[in-house]
Structure formats: structure tokens, C-alpha cells
Amino acid sequence: MPIPGSSAELSHQGREFLQFAAQANKTEMAMADLAEARSQNVTVKGMSQTMIPDYGQNYAQVQLIALTHWFALDASLNLVNHRAVNRLTKANDQEFDKDYTTLMIKDHVHAIKRFDKAAARMDAADLKRYALSTLPTLRKHLEQAEIAARSAGVDDATISSILKGLPSEATERGSSVNLN
Fold this sequence. Notes:
This protein has six helices and no strands.
């Protein structure tokens, strides 16, 4: 018989979402640290300074949820995220701000889609609440990334093409979420 709150009680979908959330937070913190050190643009630097504490707090929430379910999160970045950070590390100084802000828009669109889906479909109430409560921060960061990208010289057509398929904010308002 599983221990109450153990990972055995957490669905595969729940474990996968926790691992995704942990990886996303750690990756965004690593990239924001890079941007804080390398950015030549005050708007981009300001965005990264906002994201570092936000993602630190968010990662702490993910760790707490994992702990309550006796679920071990990966200690380091997975291969895909490690490569993404390395590519950004190798970006030349003239293109760094464009590369970083474009990546932030892409990452936040992807995260919003995953968190929106989790908020609507997750069985575990704590994961559903976490996903739902994180969506407004993700959307705020996406708006900041759009502003920073424009400031860094990313054209509106590129930004618009990345934003296609972004879910509406209806889930965040709770219209399709049952937290019981």
C-alpha cells in the first residue's frame, strides 16, 4: 500500500508536469543570470532581474509539492535545457539580447500552454492550484519579454508568429477549473 501523498499516488502526468516545471524554472533562472551579466540593453537587463527572484520562488513551490508527494526532481538541467543555455552562452554580444528575448517569448508561450493544460486536466489538487496560480506570472513575464524583444530590435512579425496558438486567459480566471 502506498504512503499517502507518495509519488505512487501521483499520476504519470503529474510527475511529468512537476519535472517540466522544475526544469523550466531552473532553465529560466540560468538564462536570466546570463542576461543580467551579458545584456547591453537596459530593458532586457531589467526583465532578467525581475525573473530571477520570481523563478526562484516558483522553483521553491515545485520542490515543496514534489516533497509532499515523495517525488525526487532531477538535480540538474536535462540535456535539452543544458544545450539551450549553452547556445545562449555562445551567442555573440551583438545578437545576445535578440536571441535571449526571442527565446524568452518562445519558452513562455510553451510554458503557458503546458500550465494551462495542467490547470484544466490535472487530477492532483495541489498541482492544479500550482499551475493555475503560476499562469498570471508566466503571462506577466511573456509581456515583459515582448517589450524587451522590441527594445532589442526583434521585429513585430517574428514576435507575432511566436505568439500564435497562445491559450486564452479563461483558464486563469477559473472558468474551466475545478480545484476539488
